[in-house]
Please model this.
Amino acid sequence: MRLRGKAEWAFVLASIPSPHSNVVHLGPLTIHMYGLMLLLAIFACVWLTTVRWRRLGGDFDLVVRVTVWGVAFGIVGARAYHDITSWHEVPSPKWKGIFEIWKGGLGVWGGILLGTIAGAIVIRRSGNSVRLFMDAVAPGLLLAQGIGRIGNWWNQELYGKVTTLPWGLQIDPSHFVNPNQVAFVHGHRVLFHPTFLYELIWDLVGVLLLLWVGRRFRIRPPGLFALYVSYYCFGRFFEELLRIDPAHHFAGLRLNAWVSIFVFLCSTAFFIWWQVLGHGWEPPPPPRPTAKRPKARPAREGPKMAIPRGRVR
Model:
């Protein structure tokens, strides 16, 4: 009996627990951790992008403006993609559930697409190079996506198949995707692949890789952004093979797996064409200041004092 108890205790220690609630109460305040993770992800992206943009000669003002419009339209695009492709997961009543992003449900494809379009318009209107800024923001976007996945852990969602690996994820039965899923087998808790952790690690490694490639090689903007898209899609495809949350399937693969394949092929083909086979490429102009600086006021001239010539010695 003692050996069995020790084995069960070791089994529990060799797994990843999940929070029992996705909210934290601080007195009268209720903090939704999913939203907080999204906020931290945005701050991390802004920080890294600002560092890279300033090294190129740009200013913080443009980063802020791109962030405001890009995040706003990115959230709209991400939620719209989720609602369209996973309408059955939208909480009821539907008219209210389509806006409840704190309960999870953001499609990264729609967010990147609409956020990139909005950000490109802002950059274009400022007179700066869209291509140059895309390369500057690429590592920050991947960093934000990785941090944002921690929100899935708080919501106990988007986990993978059942596993016996020592880093398996504990999920409360109330969050089981399959209502017929048993919670215990032979006295042991059933564990699942922590796909949020897989993507978090994959994204952080990708951030370091993009930073290294950008310094080590001469990448034609927006080649680094294309590499970011290809890198993410490559890892996302294998993640989709593990996930068990409801999704549309075509030819045995989930919808997002097909999207990963399509976007990966497009971005990789563009990178090869642009970086290797492209001709007539001209480097983008350097960043230009966008912040409106107040004009210096002319110094007021006081009354002139007449001094007799004879007293000047």
User: Anything to note?
Assistant: The beta strands are 15-16, 23-26, 29-32, 162-163, 168-170, 184-185, 188-189, 191-192, 249-250, 253-254.
